Please model this.
Amino acid sequence: MEENKSIDIPAEKPTPEELETYAKTYFKYFLEVCEKYKVIDNEYYEKIILPIKEKYEEKRKKYEAEINKSYIEYASLWNRLCAHFLDGLVILLIFFPYILLYGNKSSAFNQIYLICLIIVVFSFLESSNMQGTFGKLICGIKVVGINGERISFLNSLIRNVIKFLSLGLCAFTSFVPLFSDEKKAIHDYIAQTFVAKKNSLINKS
Model:
């Protein structure tokens, strides 16, 4: 465990072994050493310190991600289905005038256009600070990356394209989360995401 100690930064350059010890035991102090030599001896910083710094920063990120993930409560299938139902109602209300006017007369091109529009909007919402569609927000769940972080628009787009394709091909794919420890659907596995309960997430930007 890292201790809160105030240690004077050494006057002489630490050896790689000493730097490893600092990084393992007093990471905040190690970062102070890094900042000092980044200013006064950039060559030493880049050749000796930076590789060690990157190594231990990556280790700490993985460790923190595992800690964060251990607190995450995955959204149940019923949470997800409820969110899908509410999203369906929102879509119906938005496009009701169009459906009323055109009904079955709508061309295949228009139908494909509407589906693509919905996919783009859903992808934008899930990759925004909201991290979910309106249905998901009402149900208290969010879409996150494998470490509980906010996902990118591209990741969200891939997720939603796969979701609509899988649901279009076979509606039973909705029940895949029943057989997954992390309650993942097919599109979650492909996009490397999962859906979690909002209250169990540590706020991440």
